[in-house]
Design brief:
The chain is an alpha/beta fold. The chain is 54% helix and 13% strand. It has a single domain, classed as Rossmann fold, CATH 3.40.50.300. The protein contains 9 helices and 5 strands; from the N terminus they run βαβααααββαααβα.
Length: 199
């Protein structure tokens, strides 16, 4: 089975490319979804977060207040690192199990969509990696529109991630998503033909 690692910066259009893969009947494992479910009530990660962050990140219902937790880790790199240490091993194991299950079911290809692919060293499970990128002005505009936030906050969010240029340099393939969806699809098809995934 060929595993394709998909990554990119915030608001670069990774979801758009993931949907293109799904429309080609190629399974996509979404690390963000797994990460969210890893923090469901009474999971191991949930209990570790309770010990590490205390009651202030919990709602009266007992669920994690994800917005509050997000605010804390966004403004405190040490806390962000600690949360990643709790969640990422669980996400990694869940992804590996899903890959094995798809392989047993006879699938030839799978895409693993991981925003922090290189930061978490998860590229080692991929046969090759694709980075979705845009120019910085487009990234800022899209992030402001998507999250309804100020220019200052958009710049902060982008700065908190690995620089796009660094992600590009670590990736095997790059798709520039600054133009039309058709142009993005064309780049993806070219890569998949080159990699013997599409004939």
């Amino acid at each position: 089975m060929k595993v394709i690692g998909l990554t990119g910066g915030i608001a670069c259009g990774k979801s758009t490319v993931s949907d293109m893969f799904r429309n080609m009947d190629i399974n996509v494992i979404d690390a963000d979804k797994i990460s969210r479910s890893a923090l469901d009530m009474n999971t191991d990660a949930y209990n570790e977060v309770k010990i590490e962050f205390g009651q202030e990140v919990f709602l009266p219902s007992g669920h994690i207040n994800r917005k509050r937790l997000g605010d804390i880790i966004f403004n405190d790199p040490r806390k962000r690192k600690r949360l990643n240490e709790i969640v990422h091993p669980k996400v990694y194991n869940a992804i590996e199990r899903k890959i094995q299950s798809l392989e047993l079911d006879g699938h030839k290809f799978v895409v693993v969509d991981v925003p922090l692919l290189f930061e978490t060293k998860m590229q080692k499970i991929a046969n090759f990696t694709i980075c979705i990128t845009v120019n910085i002005d487009t990234q800022v505009e899209r992030l402001m529109a998507r999250d309804d936030i100020t220019l200052e906050l958009a710049a902060k969010k982008i700065a908190s991630q690995m620089p796009l240029k660094e992600k590009e340099s670590l990736s095997d393939e790059i798709i520039n998503n600054s133009k039309s969806v058709l142009e993005t699809k064309k780049q993806l098809v070219e890569i998949l033909k080159k990699r013997d995934i599409l004939l």
